[in-house]
Amino acid sequence: MNRASRLEGFGFIAPLLVLMVVAFNAPIVYMLGLAFWEKGRGFTLEHYEGLLEAPVYLRVLGNTMRIALIATIANIIIGYPLAHWMRGLGSRGRMIALALVVLPFWVSILVRTYAWIVVLGNGGIVNRALQWSGLTDAPVSFLYNELGVTIGMANVLLPFLVLPLFAAMIRIDDRLLQAAASLGAPPRTIFWKVYFPLTLPALAAGALLVFILCLGFYVTPAILGGGRVPMISNLLDTLINQIPRWEQASAISTILLIVTLVIFAAYRRLDRKASGT
Amino acid sequence: MTGGSVWTRRGLAAMGIFGLVFLTVPLVIVIPMSFSSARALTFPPPSLSLRWYETFFGDPRWMEAMWTSTFVAAISSVAALILGGLAAYGLRRGTFKGRDWAEGNFMAPLIVPTIIVAIALYLGLAKVGLLGSLVGLVVAHTLLNVPLVMMVLGVAIREFDQRIEQVAWSLGASWSYTMRKVVLPNLAPSVFAAWIFAFIGSFDEVIVTSFIAGKYETVPKKMFNELVLEVNPTITAVATLLIAFTVLALAAVAFVLGRAGKLKETVV
User: Fold this and answer.
1) Which 3 state secondary structure label does DSSP give B35?
2) Max intra-chain CA distance, chain B
3) What domains lie within chain A, and their CATH numbers?
4) pLDDT tens-place string over residues A141-164
5) In contact, B73 and B203? CB cutoff 8 Å
6) Which residues of A fall within a CB distance of 8 Å from B239?
7) Domain hosting residue B238, numbered range
């Protein structure tokens, strides 16, 4: 009995486990190996020394961090009021708003990124509106620069922040807020002293998730940046597909992987706190 | 919380609506643009035509990409559904050690940046000589969609009362009979949702595919390659078709889950 229960259910996961180990874990380990090994000499850190010596790598890294941070902040500024507003809607309004957040989430990233070319281009609706209202005479260039990349990334990642935040907000008991009001707290105090602190773990978790996803973003910077806004992923693409330097690419991937896993561990802690388990 | 001045509430509503507009307007704008008769992306379109759809459907390369995408999505979504479904069941019902570890491993493709998965698979497949093969592509898409399947089915299995299965066993039903006649019929709406999600996930995948597909073109890969080079209005028609496809697929999921009363728990 004891022996059987120790293995019970293992058969169900065995096929997937085999596939994962062969086709996912092994390639990742092989990539880590390339980052730290040199043929005939064994363990080496020379690929990392190479990274430190070339200023271009550090510049791309700094660039990526900055764009990821700005896109995350933009997400918070747009996403928090949206989720908060959705919480106050009736059940019908909530369903509609939720559908409008979930739908873009499932539409191809490529399509959502491309849509911004249509909207932000020189003849696009935003520039038309700006010129018609007399705010500018010439078209504003939103595309193929950091602004366009940041707008596109904020847009693509917004559902990742709004959905968990909204889920955490609707779990907050209205009676708690009513109790604060009946004790004489003005709405502003209730919001900042009661409501906001209760949503903070979910907000922080969502923001970390968005930040992680920004760090590895590939499609949006490639299209909306037009090659002028290099981020880590696009650098990796160059090192694999254009000037093959696999060891260098593996070394950068390893750094990105470690940074991601560390932030993800923080995210997990916050997420557990936010969902109260 | 509904308190606060009229202006606070109006300000909040304005910000909320801005958020929704920011999310949805780009998609809404693409649709009329795809019926434009002009080559330049000017809004509103000067006059309407179907020329970009004719270009798309008349181009054998796009049609071949469509076929490859459908083929890879069909096989990999079913593989992800079977492997991920069995694993989700084993993880929820099993008592073996290391379940957390196994689950973390299965969910990893969702957490590890896709660009890293793409590079690792590129290097690994190059090593075993499967770079640019359909087999490599299908396996990669399967791995990437397993987490989606496991998230949807994991919830459904946890909500399904285990005692119902135990009753079937205690009445002498075999394992496979219990699966077919008790577990699957009860989970059918969630299985359908998981399959659709996996299919969309594979059909839209672009990063890993661009790295490992070699000479094979899928719709997103071809779209990406064209977009990096130049803005071609045919893409607007492709984008509209992909939006329509996603809306229809999600409507089907919402309908099936809604009928089973499971919509809310799967969405939020």
Assistant:
1) coil
2) 71
3) 1-44 (no CATH), 56-275 (1.10.3720.10)
4) 888 899 999 999 999 999 999 999
5) yes
6) 108, 110-111, 114-115
7) 52-267
The partner residue sitting opposite B41, judged by closest CB among A23, A86, A124, is A124
CA-based max dimension of chain A = 81
What secondary structure does DSSP assign to B40-91, as a single string? S--SS-SSB--HHHHHHHH-HHHHHHHHHHHHHHHHHHHHHHHHHHHHHHHH
Number of domains in chain B: 1
B76/B47: higher pLDDT: B76
No. of H helices and E strands in chain A?
15, 2
Residues of chain A where predicted confidence (pLDDT) is lower than 70: 1-6, 276-277
Q: How far is CA A48 from CA A57, A60, A134, B61, B118, in A?
A: 11, 15, 52, 42, 21
The whole-number pLDDT of residue A6 equals 66
Listed as own residue / partner, the contacts of B242-248 with beta carbons closer than 8 Å and 24 or more positions apart are B242/A107, B242/A108, B242/A110, B242/A111, B242/B204, B243/A107, B243/A111, B243/B27, B243/B30, B243/B31, B245/B203, B246/A103, B246/A106, B246/A107, B246/A108, B246/B200, B247/A103
DSSP assigned state of A25: I
Is ipTM over 0.85? yes
Q: How far is B234 from chain A (nearest CA, A)?
A: 12
Vertex A64: Cα angle to A58 and A66 (nearest 5):
105
Where on the phi/psi map is residue A8: left (φ > 0), alpha (ψ -120 to 50), or beta? beta
Judge residue A223's burial from the number of C-beta atoms within 10 Å of its C-beta, 0-12 exposed, 13-18 middle, 19 or more buried. buried
Give the C-alpha separation, A210 to A251, whole Å.
24
* Residue A98 to residue A104: CA distance in whole angstroms: 11
To test the contact with chain A by mutation, choose from B7, B10, B119, B209 the residue with the greatest count of A C-beta atoms within 10 A, namely: B119
* pLDDT for the residue A277: 53
CATH number at residue B116: 1.10.3720.10
Instruction: Tell me whether residue B81 is in a domain.
Output: yes
Are B65 and A155 within 8 A, CB to CB? no
Domain annotation covers residue B46: no
Minimal C-alpha gap between A37 and chain B (Å) = 15
What residue type is assigned to position B215 of the chain? Answer: K
Inside any domain, residue B107:
yes
Quick one: CA dihedral A213, B72, A22, B145, positive or negative? positive
- B86-90 mean pLDDT: 93
φ/ψ region of B98 (left if φ > 0, alpha if ψ in -120 to 50, else beta) reads left
Report yes or no on B8 lying in a domain: no
